[in-house]
Amino acid sequence: MDDPDDPATGDAPVDTRPAPQRVPRAPLVQRLLIGLLLLVGLVGLVATVRLATTGNAATSSNAPDFVERLIPESGSEVLTQSGVGIDVATGYDGYLILNGTEIRTPEDGLSKDLGSGRIDFTPGEDKVVTELPTGRNCVLAIVWRQSDGPEQSEPVSWCFDAT
After folding, report:
1. Taking the CA of residue 119 as centre, how many other CA atoms within 13 Å lie in the half-sphere pointing to its CB?
2. Which CATH code of 3.90.870.10, 3.20.20.140, 1.10.1040.10, 2.60.40.1220 fits the domain covering 58-162?
3. Mean pLDDT over residues 111-138, rounded?
4. For 95, phi and psi rounded to 5 degrees?
5. Of 18, 31, 68, 112, which has the fewest CB atoms closer than 10 Å, so is most exposed?
6. Largest Cα–Cα distance of the chain, in whole Å?
């Protein structure tokens, strides 16, 4: 008796599809190149982070050209009653943000002498900031050329410690 499932009898359908092919692995050179590119990217990222200007003493030396001085200098240590501010070139104006608190007007305690370029704030009673908190403090000065107006402002930031 013929078995219908027996391929030798010819009654069963024969699979004529080609056998599945194995996908070859990436050549060694390609894998090495990908690894090298990943390594170069990682080294570039580390270098960028290490060379970035942040809130340390390097900020004072890398300030924009219109900044003549940061008060206090970035990375310095001051007393909690110390003033903060920025000395800008003639023809510039601005205001301060101290640890997230905007100081824009004389009512807030902001003092400006645009003839000399000084924009200052000293903490005290009846002011928006009574004293600098102990530890790290950061200032963001929003500065613009007077002829351009505040719409064309440029931020300058730095940090220091208060004790």
Report:
1. 28
2. 2.60.40.1220
3. 94
4. -150, 175
5. 18
6. 114
Confidence check: pLDDT of 158 > 80: yes
89 HSE (CA, 13 A, CB side): 7
Return the domain boundaries, the chain: 25-53, 58-162
pLDDT of 39 higher than 80: no
Per-residue confidence (pLDDT) for residue 61, from 0 to 100: 53
Exposed/middle/buried for residue 162 (C-beta within 10 Å: 0-12, 13-18, 19+): buried
Give 96: exposed, middle or buried? Use CB within 10 Å, 0-12, 13-18, 19+: buried
pTM of the complete model: 0.62
Neighbouring C-beta atoms of residue 67, cutoff 10 Å: 21
3 state SS of 48: helix
